[in-house]
Each structure stands twice: as C-alpha cells, then as structure tokens.
Amino acid sequence: MSVLAALLFAQLAAFAPADEYKLVNPRAIELFERDQRLMQWALAKYDGNRDGYLSIFEADKAAGEFKQIADGDRDGHVTPAEYRSAWGFIVARWGDQVASARSR
Ligand SMILES: [Ca+2]
Ligand SMILES: [Ca+2]
Predict the structure, then answer these.
(1) Rounded to the nearest whole angstrom, what is the distance from the C-alpha of residue 100 to the centroid of ligand 2?
(2) How far apart are the CA of 25 and the centre of ligand 2, in A?
(3) Residue 52: phi, psi to the nearest 5?
(4) Which ligand is nearest to the CA of 47?
(5) Which residue, 81, 87, 89, 103, is the most exposed by fewest CB within 10 angstroms?
(6) What b-and-e string marks burial along 84-99, b requiring 16 or more CB atoms within 10 Å of the CB?
(7) How far is it, in rounded angstroms, from Cα 91 to Cα 93?
(8) Domain residue ranges of the chain, discontinuous segments joined by +
(9) 60 Cα: distance to centroid of ligand 1 (angstroms)
(10) Where is the signal peptide (predicted)?
(11) Nearest 5 degrees, angle CA 52-CA 56-CA 62?
C-alpha cells in the first residue's frame, strides 16, 4: 500500500463513526426550523460543536429528546396536545436560560 493510499484509508476510517450513526429522523431539523423557541432549546442543549447551527445529527438527537418529553403516554406518537404541552414545558423550563444565552 502506498503512503497516499494508507493516509486515505486512515481518513476514511476516521469518518466511519459518523457514517454509522443512523439518523432516527433525517427531517428532524424541520421541527426546529419551524419554531425558534425549540431551535434555541435545541442549540442550547445539542449544538455539540458550538458553531451556532444545528446539524442534522444534532437535530436528530434533540428531536429524540423532544419526543421523549412530549410522548407522555408512551404510545410512540406525539399528538398536537402532547406537542403543545411539551413546548410549554420546554419554554417554561428553558426560556430564561435561552434568553440569557442569547443576550450574552
Ligand atoms: Ca452545531
Ligand atoms: Ca403519545
């Protein structure tokens, strides 16, 4: 194996973990793009690399937690009522923190 091929192979291997992470919901980002309050919450908790943007991987994890919070009866679905109640919980619990993070 040439040095170049070895380097290339090492790089591919380094990228492998991200490729192996399976997105639960590749469109999770849309949930946060629709709602600035949820976006602020997701950024505060899940912006892992602190670049100020939610990647699809970060959004996927945030959406997973949102669903856990929202799905009160654990039937696997989030009804509009469950969504509203989770939204209220997050804004009440995280609103101040999010507001202070923004003014910093
Ligand atoms: Ca990010
Ligand atoms: Ca439910």
Answers:
(1) 32
(2) 17
(3) 85, 0
(4) 1
(5) 103
(6) eebbeebbeebeeebe
(7) 6
(8) 25-103
(9) 12
(10) 1-18
(11) 75
Nearest ligand to residue 82 Cα: 2
70 alpha carbon to ligand 1 midpoint, in Å? 23
**pLDDT surpassing 70 at residue 94:** yes
Distance CA 26, CA 41 (A): 19
> What is the distance of C-alpha 99 from the center of its chain?
19
| Cα–Cα distances in angstroms (integers) from residue 52 to residues 46, 55, 81, in the given order | 10, 10, 30
**3-state class of 3 per DSSP?**
helix
Cβ proximity of 73 and 86 under 8 Å: no
Over residues 80-88, the mean pLDDT reads 96
Q: What is the DSSP letter of 75?
A: S
Nearest one of 31, 27, 96, 14 to 66, comparing CA atoms: 31
pLDDT at 12 over 60: no
Confidence at residue 14, expressed as pLDDT on a 0 to 100 scale: 53
